[in-house]
From TrEMBL:
Domain Rhodanese stretches: 20-141, 171-283
Keywords, comma-separated and alphabetical: Repeat, Transferase
Source organism superkingdom: Bacteria
Record's protein name: Rhodanese domain-containing protein
Organism, scientific name: Oceanospirillum multiglobuliferum
Amino-acid biosynthesis keyword on record: no
Pfam families in the record: Rhodanese (PF00581)
UniProt cross-references to InterPro entries, sorted A to Z: Rhodanese-like_dom, Rhodanese-like_dom_sf, TST/MPST-like
Record SMART domains: RHOD
């Protein structure tokens, strides 16, 4: 499925769209790994008008199966469809997702998942809520509900299952691998979250934080393209993005789409799933 419009939208553009008769559905995707309630609490205190909260743990992921899955398994089709119904989203509905800024958590994951389900018009607010506030736009407080009720049967998903790579495919096919984590975690020098440090052998490190500027906005398209094309990749093999749990890897994928480059596949289980099987190889070093 091709992206049918720009992957990013500015705060000014979103404000104009929200004033139109058929505005996009807006999802607030803020989340903290240190405090699972922090994102929702921040949403309740301040959010873009009409925005609903999208919970990384409860809606954008399935429950963790200890020793089997990574920390944020992809949601089942049923779980994602139930969330889309709650939000009033079908595959024809325009959607805008946002974080606090683009250096944050789950907006790129929501962008990827909704497109994975076949939603044609999904955009990420460039710079997130910070950019909205900086543009002088007003915020709401409290919970908001969907403006339109969607019948489950009318969502009509079209699952893009060929966008995914699993651990067995990585072992057998040896694709190009890009790791979105910071270089210290990639090298195995530190590991604050997962029980084993390191990276998948032959992967390259491209921290997702290098793709945004100091305000949390994505780098200009030409700069992104230059940085992404500088990666030493084997053009005869597919490109697969991963991270710690399959969330910030979507940030890399989004950057490729913004830059107008072929979209990488996603290893959704990522490092935290890879290390559940002790027979899988682990590399360290820069």
């Amino acid at each position: 499925m091709a992206q049918s419009l720009d992957a990013l939208i500015s705060a000014e553009q979103l404000a104009l769209q929200l004033a139109q008769p058929n505005p996009p559905v807006v999802l607030d995707c803020r989340f903290s790994l240190q405090d699972a309630q922090a994102g929702r609490n921040a949403y309740l205190q301040q959010h873009i008008p009409s925005a609903q909260y999208a919970d990384l743990d409860q809606q954008l992921s399935d429950p963790v199966q200890k020793g089997v899955t990574g920390r944020h398994p992809l949601p089942s089709e049923q779980r994602l469809l139930a969330a889309m119904q709650t939000w009033g989203i079908n595959t024809e509905q325009a959607v805008v997702v946002y974080d606090q800024n683009n250096g944050a958590m789950a907006a790129a994951r929501a962008w990827w998942l909704l497109r994975y389900a076949g939603v044609q018009q999904v955009q990420v607010l460039n710079g997130g809520l910070d950019a909205w506030i900086a543009a002088g736009q007003l915020c709401n407080t409290g919970e908001e509900a969907a403006k339109v009720t969607i019948d489950h049967a009318n969502i009509k998903p079209s699952w893009q299952t060929d966008w995914l790579y699993d651990a067995q495919q990585i072992i057998q096919q040896q694709p190009n691998l890009l790791d979105a984590r910071g270089i210290e975690r990639f090298a195995g020098e530190v590991e604050p979250i997962d029980p084993i440090a390191g990276h998948i052998p032959n992967a390259q490190c491209l921290p997702f934080t290098q793709l945004v500027d100091v305000t949390g906005r994505f780098l200009p398209k030409t700069e992104l393209k230059t940085q992404l094309e500088a990666q030493a990749l084997d053009s005869s093999k597919p490109l697969v993005a991963y991270c710690g749990s399959g969330v910030t890897a979507c940030h890399l994928i989004l950057a490729y789409v913004i830059a107008g480059l072929p979209e990488p596949k996603l290893y959704a289980g990522s490092w935290s799933e890879w290390i559940t099987d002790t027979t899988r190889p682990v590399a360290t070093g820069r």
